[in-house]
Every structure is written in structure tokens, then in C-alpha cells.
């Protein structure tokens, strides 16, 4: 068992070049694309020339939706508890 395992070779890690962020210009709504490395950095819209920061990828929207849904559920539960408590008096 002295054979060299080819998987152990120290190969360079290829970074995914196709990672892009799809979003719309915050001013004119023009659909834009920026590489992942541009997230949270300044970019300029080629249509209207406005300067903005590139938003984080769509995974952030899932988190935002989860937070909003949690807040809505908590608010609904609080309102229900409030109504029940007032009726009990
Ligand atoms: Zn624009």
C-alpha cells in the first residue's frame, strides 16, 4: 500500500467564474448583472448612470422573507393573546 493517491495532489482550486448576481437598477429598474465579487461594492448603471451598491444574492431574500414571516406570526399571536385576555375580563 505504497501507491501514491492522485487525489492528494496539491491542485489549484478553480473559483467559479459564473457566479453572478442578478438585480435591477434601484433608480430606473434596468436589469443588471454583476460578478459575485462586486457585492456590497459601488457600481454604475449603464442606462441612467446612477451609482449604487451591488445587492447581495437572492439567498438574502429567503432570509428576509423568513424574518418578515416570523414577525407577522409573532404579531398575530400577540394580537390573538391580547384579544383573548381582554375577553376574559
Ligand atoms: Zn439605472
What does this structure look like?
The mean pLDDT is 83. The chain is 33% helix and 18% strand. The longest helix is centred in the last third of the chain and has 29 residues, at 59-87. By secondary structure, it is an alpha+beta fold. The chain contains one helix and four strands, in the order ββββα. It has two domains: 13-56, no CATH class; 58-89. It has one helix at 59-87, and strands at residues 20-24, 31-35, 42-44, 51-53. Zinc ion (ZN) binds at residues 25, 27-28, 30, 45, 47-48, 50.
List the helices and strands and how they pair.
Elements: E1 20-24, E2 31-35, E3 42-44, E4 51-53, H1 59-87
Antiparallel strand pairs: 1-2, 3-4
The structure holds zinc ion (ZN).
Report the structural category. alpha+beta
> Order of strands in the sheet with the most strands?
1-2
Radius of gyration: 24 Å
- Total domains, how many? 2
- Tell me which ligands are bound: zinc ion
Largest sheet: 2 strands, antiparallel
Q: Let me know the number of strands.
A: 4
| Beginning-to-end CA distance, first to last residue | 81 Å
Which range does the strand content fall in? 15-25%
N-to-C SSE string, H for helix and E for strand: EEEEH
Give a quick set of tags describing it.
89 residues, binds zinc ion, 2 domains, two-stranded antiparallel ribbon, alpha+beta, elongated, 18% strand
Give a brief outline of the structure.
The chain has one helix at residues 59-87, and strands at 20-24, 31-35, 42-44, 51-53.
Amino acid at each position: 500500500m505504497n501507491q501514491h493517491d492522485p487525489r492528494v495532489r496539491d491542485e489549484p482550486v478553480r473559483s467559479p467564474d459564473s457566479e453572478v448576481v442578478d438585480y435591477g437598477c434601484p433608480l430606473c429598474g434596468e436589469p443588471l448583472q454583476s460578478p459575485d465579487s462586486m457585492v456590497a461594492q459601488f457600481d454604475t448603471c449603464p442606462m441612467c448612470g446612477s451609482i449604487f451598491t451591488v445587492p447581495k444574492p437572492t439567498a438574502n431574500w429567503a432570509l428576509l422573507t423568513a424574518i418578515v414571516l416570523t414577525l407577522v406570526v409573532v404579531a398575530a399571536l400577540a394580537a390573538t393573546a391580547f384579544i383573548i385576555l381582554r375577553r376574559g375580563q
